[in-house]
Specification:
Elements: H1 5-23, E1 52-57, H2 67-70, H3 86-93, E2 102-104, E3 110-112, H4 136-139, H5 146-157, E4 164-169, H6 172-176, H7 184-204, E5 210-213, H8 222-225, H9 232-251, E6 259-261, H10 263-272, H11 311-314, H12 325-341
Helix pairs in contact: 3-12, 7-9
């Protein structure tokens, strides 16, 4: 996991740069790496049952892997910081506090932190990180694919247990990297099948409450809309991933062993009814000002770089791919409803 000397120097230069930005008006946050306070040990949480939350996935669920560097400019998560991502909201609902399993340091090295948030921004289902070019000048090529995240958990903890809620949301980066159709379909299918096998591994190792979220409609993101075909290919590949995932779950007899959450249909409905959901801007804009936010990524977005003071609540997207605080909160509520409908808690 160690970076090269060139990478180390590059990261240190970045750290110095963001420190200067901080002095010029950025706002750090000591709480960026963790969630808000969970329910007290003696209190009944909002979800009606205490559960320890374990999370695997990509930037949509990353609770602070890159916070030690990103917080220098008030960033830390892939949203409108200092807001939380959906997995943190769900954890609080069940009386838990979700923190990062690994965090990065200035030498571009991941170090274990003891948390149960294994999701890392930039991660695919199974493709090694060194084939990715995600923010390499900031974080290097270190993000663990979901297959490795689960292996890391098992090497550290041995198994899952009935007192845990395991959240799995991955595949969007595989869709984004699949390329044009029809060739891209093979990449999507391979990733979907690998994710189903990873879910099988989680269940086989003792997990009894597993929430599996399918891929959202990536074509509806601002990034998708900006592509030459207006997101049509990304939408089709999102559909292909979800169909392949469902087929793999059926073939493996896993459908009744997981709580499936349809984020694809959910985001379609929210975009179509964005004003009724409290947004002023749907998927046609971003809350983080591209001219003020380093690298134009929500990882480094803070209130000082919002396009408006309340953009974290009135915009759907933080940058061209990632949800704002409000959209994350709405999705967390949707997930909690699906979990309750499956008979767990309320």
């Amino acid at each position: 996991m160690k970076a090269s000397n060139h990478g180390m120097a590059r990261s240190l230069v970045f750290a110095a740069a963001v420190a200067l930005l901080t002095a010029c008006g950025g706002h750090g946050s000591d709480s960026v790496g963790g969630a808000g306070s969970g329910a007290g040990a003696g209190a009944t949480p909002a979800g009606g049952i205490h559960l320890q939350v374990v999370s695997f996935g990509d930037s949509l669920s990353d609770v602070g892997t890159y916070a030690p560097i990103a917080k220098l400019v008030g960033g830390g998560r892939f949203t409108t910081n200092p807001g939380q991502v959906w997995a943190q909201d769900v954890a609080q609902y069940y009386g838990d506090t979700l923190t990062a399993a690994y965090t990065i340091d200035a030498t571009q090295k991941l170090s274990p932190q003891g948390g149960f948030g294994y999701a890392e921004g930039g991660a695919t289902v199974a493709t090694p990180a060194d084939l990715n070019d995600f923010l390499v000048d900031v974080i290097g090529d270190i993000e663990m694919p979901v297959t490795q995240q689960v292996s890391s958990y098992l090497s550290q903890h041995g198994s899952f247990n009935a007192g845990q809620l395991v959240l799995v949301w991955a595949g969007s980066n595989d869709v984004l990297r699949a390329g044009a159709l029809p060739a891209g379909a093979a990449t999507v299918q391979t990733a979907a099948n690998a994710l189903a096998q990873t879910v099988r591994q989680i269940v086989a190792n003792g997990a009894t409450h597993v929430v599996l979220v399918n891929v959202p409609n990536v074509g509806l993101s601002p990034k998708g809309l900006a592509t030459p075909d207006g997101g049509a290919t990304l939408t089709q590949e999102s559909q292909l991933f979800n169909a392949d995932l469902t087929a793999a779950l059926q073939a493996g007899g896993l459908q009744n062993k997981v709580i499936q959450v349809d984020s694809y249909t959910w985001i379609n409905q929210v975009v179509a009814n964005y004003q009724a959901n409290g947004f002023l801007v749907a998927n046609t804009g971003q809350a983080c000002d591209a001219s003020k936010t380093p690298h134009d990524t929500s990882l480094l977005c803070s209130p000082s770089t919002y396009v408006a003071a309340n953009a974290d609540q009135t915009y759907m997207f933080a940058d061209d791919l990632h949800p704002t605080t409000h959209l994350h909160a709405l999705f967390a509520q949707f997930v909690e409803q699906q979990i309750a409908a499956a008979g767990l808690g309320r």
